[in-house]
Write a structure and sequence with these properties.
The complex is a heterodimer of chains A (about 375) and B (about 1100). With about 375 residues, chain A is an alpha+beta fold. Chain A has 3 domains: about 5-110, Beta-Lactamase; about 140-235 and about 345-380, Immunoglobulin-like; about 235-345, Immunoglobulin-like (Sandwich), CATH 2.60.40. Helices cover about 15% and strands about 40% of the residues of chain A. Chain A contains 6 helices and 20 strands. In chain A, the strands form 5 sheets. A 9-stranded mixed sheet of chain A has the order 8-10-6-5-20-18-13-16-15, with no helix packed on it. In chain A, strands 11-12-17-14 form a 4-stranded antiparallel sheet, with no helix packed on it. In chain A, β11 and β12 form a beta hairpin. The model of chain A has no long low-confidence stretch (mean pLDDT about 80). In chain B, strands 10, 11, 12, 13, 14 and 15 form a 6-stranded antiparallel sheet that branches. A 5-stranded antiparallel sheet of chain B has the order 1-2-3-7-5, with no helix packed on it. In chain B, a hairpin with a 5-residue loop joins β13 and β14 (about 1055-1060). Chain B is extended. Chain B starts with a helix and ends with a helix. Classes of the chains: A alpha+beta (about 375), B alpha+beta (about 1100). Chains A and B meet through β2, α1, α3, β4 and β6 of A and α5, α7, α9, α11 and α13 of B.
């Protein structure tokens, strides 16, 4: 499966190498593909590696990996055996190799202790590899965030070309022992296509439409879902825009107004409009009635950070664009990418009805939060 | 001082640490002196010293730095001797880092590496499975040929290890050894064969990986394990799933016949109709056709389907390819949604998935058409993603959706990403050729694009128009004229060349314009690109042939220019053309054909997908992505015309071994029920059970032994048999152990075996009651009591899923629970065939058993039967820690005779004590309840049993009341089953008949029922009836007639139940009672109970 791993930085230099089978020369990086292996297998694994690094070091970058090269090496050693993934669950890994913290490194230098657990984890041996044994908390809590993203393409006139809702339930479960949770929805029929964390019992979902699972410890993605396409997608904002480049002369005009549309009575927050301007736009002279507007001259990206959307006083951005002299007028107007957030609302209407816990005796603190965000939300102009 | 200077070279934090340590007396004197001598020698010298010191922390620091060197790809091999000494270190981190080093450099330092081997050999024998596994991991990673025999031995031993984790490591080691020494292949295949039989989900993925790498062609090894792998698949870890699915895909293509043949009718056009049809309809079709799918083929499809919901994209893709390559065409659609879902993933995944969808969408438009909008391009997509989406949209285009797609394409054409815009134009061209309805629209659109500002767009348009015109040249002169007009403004060579070619090809349609274009070209000829020059020469030649009068001079001029061109291709072409159209004296042979050569009708180019030729690669493979055959790619074979023998996948049932027969022949107790349940349960049990299972089985067997003896004692008639009985029953339980083992091994792989078993138990039962020696009800109840102990055992053991176990316990009656324990036993993989022997022998002795036990009458005393069905009254989640369960003890109520006795078990599951638990308000208000006394205090984890009496007034209406604690009140309700509202009544057969005679007409309800085969014996009937209703057995003189009598608790009305057996397991069930509502409800309950096994 996976023979060797080379980490390469932006400038194309190899800064870390690890081999699981016989040692392969660095020159192999000149040509990538050698033997048959499902590409997604490797890609998925690499993403897990990156996620693990992220999890351990807070970020996954060249500097961080160089700083923690030994831990990285130890991790990689545990993650693959003979090129075949061995332990990819972060719970299992964390039991074997403790993530570095400032406190621990201080303690280690003083006591000569190490980051490597002296017990090998039992999780790897059980049928529940995602949860370690002997979890203990003084405050038992289980939080679920239902996050929905609207992917949409709106055309010039504001009509929806394409819109769909993708959702994800992120969980943060800190419960003592081996709790067995059951999460049920008021309206599970909304969910069209789902994918689960391995902990979810698929048979129960098939038969009862409830999520029954023994959760991993800590943060994890419980499920992702797609809301069936029959349901009309509510588009929370309406964009009135006109961008024009004049045939003659070296200027253009831009006028954007954003108004709330179907917000279900909630406030739209974190509204940001991003525009990738054509290369010929040299500079902008724009005034915003709300928020601030910046234009990056090198990347040609216009960012208008509006913040909260006030229905009484609609935010407007207008002004002129100055173009490179002599360049032809851009063929196409730039697309507006919109980012927004609505708290306490799942735009699809999905509702968690209850969470039950079995197998443990204490009473956990439970919470469900709903957020709607704009995913790939584009307005063509 | 000198030391610190030295350290500063190495710099950083380590220096400080080391300096600090330096002050300790042990290392300072010798170490410092040592360093002074060697200070300026090798750069790694200090590392060596650190390794040789006796400070663990120094060693660790040294190893960390060495690992950093390795990671950077620097050579640290010279430190090998110093490092290898630490291989047996106690410090785990140090040890692990040494392992890392060892694995990296052992190949280069073979002799020295051998020093470490003995350490691993010792560790291989360690009692800790994890240490054994890690030793094998490192040992097998040391690529030193000399130790091949040691590795082989270690692998063989590990493959028989009790720990599945060690066996998994062994499977990985197989591949490592194979890559080191291919001569070991045969021996390794033996190990693989053995490990393939392993039933642990942990091992399955790894061993299949080994199989794929060592002997992918030995498909015969899979046969016997095929069904097991299919069944285990869902529980295997995600990476293993990918490997197994891909192997099974290959396997299935060699073993099953094509499911596509009868799909000939499912072609693209009428395919749509089938999407709407539900699955049942599909099945019918499959059955109806001449093609019948092999059940094993179906098994694979069914068991892989849930994996489409995996979060792992590789798993989803592998299931998708499996369906694509194996499923009947109309079933492939189920993968669509999941594949589309993957498009939300990161772009690398998107790229691969889109590639696969592109290939799929060529053959099966219908699959992705409903999801067309998911392939709409966003301005933020990268170019290669955009082009793939475009490709798919083009593949999906048909008459119905083309207008939508074209509108979308219009947006894309204007894209700032010009490469993408150009690709869009090509896509429009493809749509135009594929869908004749829109050809005109597309052409007009493309012509409009000719006035586009961007030259790449224009160029691409010209090229596409050229291709389109070629396919439909009729009356295109307008477009050609338009292009001629644009000719001056177009600068892209390819576009200019294309226009010139078009002029030449259709010069007769534009007789006036073509010569003029040639005139212009003659002016600029020298400044043009090669490709334009070539086409100019072509145009000149064609015009000369068709319109020589006007163009003769121009042609000669151009040919002269071409003759002296710098490019030899053009000189060549010019010479050739000249000879062809204006032949000299000697070489005129070809010239008479000039017209036919130059103006021959040319076949139109076929505009097709770039993914057309990829479909011969297995989807999801690297070869498919690259469109090149990668090393190690395993072709999918074509379906065999005739399916190979299906029976090879049957797991053999080895013939009964003779010596077992006499032993088991004596077994008396019917373990019949066990079969049904163990059949269901073994699947689940298997995962959780570990070696501890053996303990269980012994404990439970002993307990059942006891139970046997107790029951015998109670029944006075056969007291002398007691001792022998207990012996037998323990042997019986031993049997069931072995049976459960065998269940695990055979485990539904052979459908035949369980069926056989099912047919046996009733025979055993019926004959044993003929013999009349076993009061079965008693035995079963007592054994259920005794088994409760072992039940808790099983809960403790099965680490897999405690609540699930709990549930089972609630649902099944307790007798089965003890059998569950017996199942809770994992046989070592090595002796896997053995249990099979046991099971089949068990079958034979059950037959023997049925002959030996003949009973004629039953002496069941109703009181002995106490149902253990416990119902939940209050869940501890809703009860804020207070949970309550209730059951009907079936005893006369102490408080009032008209009340039904109810026992309630109150448990405090909270972490604080509960006070003043009592019964509060009730509804209906008239409800007569005798409450329990207030419980002052219930400590955490404590539970208390209280009894209540409730007068239900002979109705099944629920009794609602409140359960109160000091702080809270909880509404609860008890709904009695109708059978609990009856008290048993004793009467003679004559009395029964007399009373029955009085309760006819309105008071009689009867029905003919079908009984489960297992329920045909007398005991089984009584057991089932008694489990439903609290009635008494009336002894009967007729074998085929069973009678039960009772009185309703509240009003004392008689309830008479009679059951007359008829042939083929049907029976007439009659109930006579004044309470006709109760009668019909009871009838329904009894009917249900008797119908189920």
């Amino acid at each position: 499966m996976i023979h060797s791993l080379f980490l390469i930085n932006h400038s194309g230099d190899i800064f870390l190498e690890k081999h699981w089978k016989s040692v392969i020369s660095r020159s192999v990086c000149d040509y990538f593909f050698e033997t048959e292996v499902p590409p997604l297998f490797v890609i998925e694994f690499l993403h897990r590696v990156a996620d693990t690094f992220q999890d351990y070091f807070g970020e996954c970058s060249e500097v961080v990996i160089k700083d923690n090269v030994v831990t990285v090496y130890e991790l990689l050693e545990e993650m693959l055996d003979n090129g075949f993934p061995l332990a990819t669950e972060s719970n299992v890994l964390k039991e074997m190799i403790k993530p570095p913290t400032i406190l621990r490194s201080v303690v280690n230098t003083l006591t000569g202790g190490s980051n490597v657990g002296d017990m090998l984890p039992v999780g790897q041996l059980s049928t529940i590899p995602w949860r370690r044994a002997g979890v203990k908390y003084t405050n038992n809590e289980a939080y679920f965030d239902v996050i929905e993203e609207i992917d949409a393409i709106l055309d010039k006139s504001g009509t929806t070309v394409f819109a769909e809702i993708q959702g994800v339930i992120e969980a943060c479960v800190r419960l003592t022992g081996m709790p067995d949770l059951t999460l049920s929805f008021m309206n599970p029929r909304l969910l069209d296509d789902v994918s689960f964390h391995p902990c979810v019992r698929f048979k129960r979902w098939e038969s009862e439409r409830v999520l029954s699972f023994i959760p991993p410890d800590g943060n994890f993605t419980l499920m992702t879902y797609h809301v069936s396409s029959q349901n009309l997608v509510a588009i929370p904002v309406y964009v009135k825009q006109s961008i024009s480049f004049f045939e003659t002369g070296t200027c253009g005009r831009l006028d954007i107004t954003i108004a709330p549309k179907q917000t279900m009575g909630k406030t739209v927050e974190g509204l940001v409009v991003t525009v990738h301007m054509p290369k010929t736009v040299l500079s902008v002279n724009l005034t915003a009635t709300q928020g601030n507007c910046t234009y990056d001259l090198t990347t040609k990206v216009l960012v208008w950070d509006i913040g909260k959307l006030n229905p009484q006083k609609l935010p407007n951005l207008r002004g002129s664009l100055s173009m490179q002299a002599g360049a032809p007028k851009p063929e196409e107007n730039p697309t507006l990418n919109i980012d927004l957030k609505i708290q306490q609302l799942a735009i699809s209407g999905l509702k968690v009805s209850r969470l039950d816990m079995y197998g443990e005796k204490y009473k956990p603190f439970k919470g469900v939060k709903y957020v709607t965000k704009a995913g790939k939300f584009q307005v063509r102009t | 001082m000198s030391t610190s200077v030295l350290y500063n070279d190495q710099g950083g934090a380590e220096a400080a640490v080391e300096a600090g340590l330096e002050s300790t007396p042990t290392s300072s004197s010798t170490g410092a002196a040592f360093r002074l001598v060697h200070a300026d020698f090798k750069k790694n010298e200090d590392l060596k010293e650190m390794l040789e010191s006796n400070k663990e922390s120094l060693k660790l620091d040294a190893m960390k730095r060495i690992v950093e060197l390795i990671a950077k790809g620097k050579n640290a091999s010279e430190l090998f001797p110093a490092v290898v000494k630490n291989v047996a270190s106690k410090n785990i981190e140090l040890k692990k880092l040494v392992y890392v080093y060892l694995v990296r450099y052992a190949e280069e330092q073979q002799d020295l590496a051998l020093l470490s081997i003995s350490t691993f050999q010792r560790a291989l024998k360690d009692p800790n499975q994890l240490i054994r596994a890690s030793a094998l991991r490192v040992l097998s990673s040391i690529r030193v040929p000399i130790i091949v025999p040691i590795m082989m031995l270690a692998i063989k031993e590990a493959s028989a290890d009790l720990s599945p984790y060690v066996r998994k490591t062994a499977a990985h080691a197989i591949q490592k050894l194979y890559s080191l020494d291919q001569d070991q292949k045969e021996q390794l295949i033996e190990v693989i064969e053995k490990l393939l039989k392993d039933k642990s989900t942990l091992v399955a993925g790894s061993v299949v990986m080994a199989f794929e790498e060592v002997c992918p062609d030995r498909i015969d090894l899979i046969h016997k394990n095929y069904r097991k792998l299919c069944n285990l698949l869902v529980d295997v870890e995600e990476w293993g799933q990918v490997v197994i699915i891909s192997m099974l895909t290959r396997y299935a293509r060699t073993q099953f016949t094509s499911p596509w043949k009868e799909d000939a009718m499912f072609d693209e056009t009428n395919e749509k109709a089938f999407y709407d049809s539900d699955s049942e309809e599909k099945k019918d079709q499959v059955k109806a056709g001449p093609y019948v799918m092999d059940p094993d083929h179906r098994l694979l499809l069914r068991n892989t389907k849930p994996l489409l919901q995996s979060r792992n994209t590789a798993v989803v893709m592998s299931v998708a390819q499996l369906y694509w390559h194996l499923a009947p065409k109309h079933e492939v659609n189920i993968v669509t949604k999941s594949l589309v879902r993957l498009l939300r993933s990161n772009r690398e995944v998107q790229y691969i998935v889109l590639q696969n969808i592109a290939t799929m969408s060529i053959q099966r438009k219908g699959m992705f058409e409903p999801f067309m909008k998911s392939f709409y391009v966003r301005s933020t997509d990268s170019t290669h993603i955009k082009t793939l989406k475009l490709e798919i949209l083009t593949n999906l285009a048909n008459e119905a959706n083309i207008s939508i797609i074209l509108r979308e394409f219009q947006t894309y054409v204007k894209s700032q990403d010009k490469a993408f815009a150009a690709a869009t134009i090509q896509a429009i061209g493809r749509c135009a050729t594929n869908i004749s309805e829109v050809t005109d629209t597309c052409l007009n659109g493309l012509v409009l694009l000719l006035s586009n500002r961007d030259e790449t767009v224009v160029a691409e348009s010209v090229v596409v128009i050229k291709k389109l015109l070629q396919t439909q040249p009729s009356q295109r002169s307008e477009i050609i004229k338009h292009m001629a007009k644009l000719f001056d403004s177009i600068t892209v060579p390819m576009a200019r060349a294309s226009i010139l070619w078009l002029m030449g090809e259709y010069c007769e349609r534009v007789p006036k314009i073509a010569p003029d274009v040639l005139r212009k070209m003659a002016k600029t000829f020298t400044a043009e690109e090669e490709i334009v020059k070539l086409q100019t020469v072509n145009l000149a030649a064609k015009l000369y042939l068709t319109n020589s009068k006007q163009t003769k001079l121009l042609t000669q001029y151009i040919l002269n220019l071409g003759k002296y061109d710098q490019n030899y291709d053009i000189r060549d072409r010019t010479r050739f053309i000249r000879q062809l159209i204006v032949p000299s004296e000697q070489g005129g042979a070809l010239s008479k054909y000039a017209r036919r050569i130059l103006l021959a009708p040319k076949p139109a180019p076929v505009l097709e997908s770039a993914f057309k030729d990829r479909d011969h690669y297995q989807l999801g493979s690297l070869s498919h992505s690259l469109n090149i055959k990668a090393i190690g790619y395993q072709e999918l074979s074509d379906w065999p015309a005739v399916a190979p023998d299906q029976s090879v996948r049957n797991v053999e049932v080895i013939e009964p071994v003779k010596e077992w027969v006499p032993l088991v022949g004596k077994v008396k107790k019917s373990k019949s029920d066990s079969k049904f349940y163990s059949d269901d349960e073994d699947d689940k049990e298997e995962e959780g059970s570990d070696s501890s299972g053996s303990e269980d089985s012994s404990s439970s067997s002993s307990s059942s032994g006891e139970s046997g003896s107790e029951s015998e004692e109670e029944s006075s008639e056969e007291s002398e048999k007691t001792s022998s009985d207990s012996g037998r029953s323990s042997s019986a339980s031993e049997e069931s152990t072995s049976e459960s083992k065998s269940e695990q091994t055979t485990k539904k792989k052979t459908k035949k075996v369980p069926q056989e078993k099912k047919s046996k138990p009733p025979a055993a039962d019926s004959s044993s009651d003929e013999n009349g020696n076993a009061p079965v009800a008693q035995a079963s109840s007592s054994s259920s009591e005794s088994s409760s102990g072992s039940e808790s055992d099983s809960e403790g053991d099965s680490d897999s899923d405690p609540p699930r176990v709990q549930k089972k316990v609630e649902v099944k009656s307790k007798k089965e629970v003890s059998l569950l324990d017996l199942c809770d036993f994992t046989p070592a993989p090595t002796n896997a065939p053995k249990p099979v022997v046991l099971s089949s022998s068990l079958l034979s002795d059950l037959q023997g058993l049925s002959l030996s036990n003949v009973s004629s009458a039953i002496q069941v005393t109703t009181s002995s039967f106490s149902p253990v069905k416990t119902h939940e009254l209050l869940h501890h989640m809703t009860g804020k820690g207070l949970s309550a369960k209730y059951h009907f003890p079936r005893q006369p109520c102490l408080y009032q005779p008209s009340m039904v006795a109810v026992q309630i078990i109150l448990t405090n599951s909270s972490d604080h004590s509960l006070e003043e638990i009592h019964v509060g308000g009730r509804s209906p208000a008239s409800l007569n309840i005798h409450c329990f006394n207030t419980i002052e205090r219930l400590e955490p984890e404590a539970s208390v049993t209280v009894s209540m009496g409730i007068d239900f007034s002979d109705s099944t209406q629920a009794a609602n009341f409140q359960l109160c604690t000091k702080e809270d009140q909880f509404n609860v309700s008890i709904q009695p089953a109708v059978g609990e509202l009856v008290m048993p009544s004793t009467m003679t057969e004559q009395d029964f008949c007399k009373e029955q005679g009085k309760l006819l007409g309105m008071n009689e309800t009867s029905a003919t029922i079908t009984m489960a085969t297992a329920n045909c014996s007398s005991q089984a009937i009584s057991k089932q009836v008694l489990s439903v209703a609290n009635v008494g057995v009336v002894s009967s003189t007729q074998n085929n007639l069973h009678r039960f009598a009772g009185r309703t608790v509240s009003s004392g009305a008689l309830v008479l139940v009679s059951l007359q057996l008829k042939e083929s397991s049907t029976a007439l069930l009659t109930i006579n009672t004044e309470k006709s509502v109760m009668g019909s409800m009871l009838l329904r309950d009894l009917k249900q109970a008797l119908a189920q096994a």
